[in-house]
Amino acid sequence: MTITAEFPGCDDSVRGNLFAVAVDLVVLTVRADELAVLLIKRAEKPFEGSWALPGGFVGPQEDLADTAARELVALVGREPAGHLEQLAGYAGPSRDPRGRVLSVGYLALLPDLADPEPVDDRVAAWHPVTEATGLAFDHDRIVAEGVERARAKLEYTTLAASFCPPEFTVTDLRKVYEAVWRTEIDPRNFQRKVTSTDGFLIPTRTLVTGGRGRPPQLFRRGDAVSLHPPMLREPSRQ
User: Fold this and answer.
1) What torsion do the CA atoms of 141, 146, 148, 152 make, to the nearest 10 degrees?
2) Domain that holds residue 172
3) Is 134 in the same domain as 179?
4) 96, 120, 154: which is the final residue of a domain?
5) What is the number of alpha carbons within 13 Å of residue 170 lying toward its C-beta?
6) Do residues 125 and 169 both lie within one domain?
């Protein structure tokens, strides 16, 4: 069976352009008030010993989203809460020295998790996104595009809550925005914005005790998905 037999519109030149298909994951969280990305240290060639994005090749019976979900579960040990979406495709002819590999990037936004266990004997660790450079393949570019996608999404959606645990304070949520956008936000204006947006935050009956002053209230994420009007980014600290 040949490519041209299965796809009559293709000529013989297509045979030399077959792609392996892979998925690369940009997994982001907020740790210690800083945006971090999950990386693995490669244990084999090419780029042995270099840090890279986690991912894997698409199985013969898998959809792209299935591969992304499988790799994410392998990283964190369970199906995590949070958000997962397709980012972009990467197919530069020289991106992988082993041959032509089409990689589809996926972006995951997760609450802070414990330090990950080794994945297939490869070391996995969280890195501040500001230090995630010099990565294997074209992963610097994929990380940069994933971070920018996350920053943009926080302007017009409620996805910032994906970084939070099931219950959180307004201050916790504000620190997410500040970490992702690398800026400072006026607390009063922020409180007014997020608590007045229908369906963004659902108040619970629980207060956080043990601190000074009035105990803050805990909230959980509502069913709203977009912000009207959007919450525009403040100038970055970069």
Assistant:
1) 160
2) 157-221
3) no
4) 154
5) 20
6) no
Q: Which amino acid is at 155?
A: E
In the prediction, which pLDDT does 215 show?
A: 75
- Whether the Cβ atoms of residue 114 and residue 124 lie closer than 8 Å to each other: no
- The gap from C-alpha 116 to its chain's centroid, in whole angstroms, comes to 15
Tokens standing for residue 51: 């840090």
pTM above 0.85, yes or no: yes
Count of other CB atoms within 10 angstroms of residue 92: 13
Continuous H helices in the chain? 3-6, 64-76, 139-156, 170-181, 187-196
* Cα–Cα distance measured from residue 150 to residue 109, given in angstroms and rounded to the nearest whole number: 8
Structural domain count, the chain:
2
Beta strand pairing status for 51-52 and 201-207?
A: unpaired
Interval 95-143: pLDDT, tens: 888 888 999 999 999 999 767 666 666 788 999 999 999 999 999 999 9
Provide the 8-state DSSP code for 33. T
Same domain for 144 and 166? no
- Say if residue 143 is exposed, middle or buried (CB neighbours under 10 Å; 0-12, 13-18, 19+): buried
In a domain, 50, yes or no: yes
Query: Which letter does DSSP use for residue 3 in this model?
Result: H
Residue 182 has what DSSP assignment? T
Same domain, 125 and 137: yes
**104 touches 64 (CB < 8 A):** yes
Q: Are residues 199 and 161 in the same domain?
A: yes
Total number of residues shown for the chain:
238
Contact 163, 109 (CB under 8 A): yes
21 and 118 both lie in a single domain: yes
